[in-house]
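Box 3.1 — From sequence to structure: trimethyllysine dioxygenase
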Amino acid sequence: MLRSVTFSARQVTVAFVDGTAARFHAIWLRDNALDPETRDPGNRQRLITLSDIPADLAITDAQLAGGDLRVTFAPEGKTVDFPGTWLADHVYDHAGQTPLLPKGTTTWDGTMPAPCSDWRDVRSNPRALRDWLAAVAELGFAKLTGGPAEPEALLRVADLFGHVRETNYGRFFEVRTEVNPSNLAYTGLGLQAHTDNPYRDPVPTLQILYCLENSAEGGESIVVDGFRAAERLREEDPAGFALLAGHPARFEYRGTEGVCLRARRPMIELSPDGQLQAIRFNNRSTAPLVDIPFDDMEAYYAAYRRLGELIDDPAMGVSFKLEPGESFIVDNTRVLHARKGYSGSGSRWLQGCYADKDGLLSTLAALQAQQPEAAE
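Predicted structure (token representation):
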């Protein structure tokens, strides 16, 4: 809700009832008008192009309309209402530096219990599904317990919010010991915390791992918040952080015949305004680094080493041993996963698949719109 409005030909200033204020340009308001001639009432897609808006656009009137904003534009003579709540959700009049973390992100270390939901609940209760997806969106990972210990059950996890992303590994892949493995994941070796498939562009943004058997000694799963590791690196070594964010690394995979995947992306990816977007960290798949200037290479490697030390810090990891029918999902652009080595009697059999975050976030947003108390 709005408390007051002032305007000039080129902008409007509104004061909200909570005491905050924000400015909006005339061109921004006209481009984002919510009337049915500007946006389709059903799908909310824009019906005009920027060239349809007069270059000499001006505001001739702006006033309160029941707590909302009513604006008249010249030379069209067009009057449009903007809900106060909509304006509050779309404020761009910010002072100061953009925060490092995206909105709605909470970083964590090994002291946090793993967020966990029940398979039956998330499949039958929209609120439980909403809460599980919200945990993935905020924290970057979550577990599911109580599922069936059946091959391909992980595909039903992906169906909860989106679609499987098929790769050269297939719709899903087996994670168990092989005699001649095409990937070190298919051995009993321990694996350093890593993000998957950094050699793809775009990288799969979600990974699901589902347990079918786990009677071997060892083999615990570990997850590490890469955003927290990046935060710590920036706090103690801003210059090293800038090197890892400012130069592309190279990643490569050619473990099977006919496959040669390559990507050139930074280990710490930032948006143009400096906000964390993604972490790519996978020592097994890092190709020779050839895009760092000679004079910066040693400092780059020092920052790379330190990021690895932070990721390997036992205090950073949340550890758990999956039981048959349990699974977990990670945001593969943020959360690294690791595995302790296993050997001896018994067996360990997981299945994995990839999916993409846009489907998860879309399903979550739709559920939150149906259940608005989730956002309170």
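Summary of the box: The chain has a mean pLDDT of 94.
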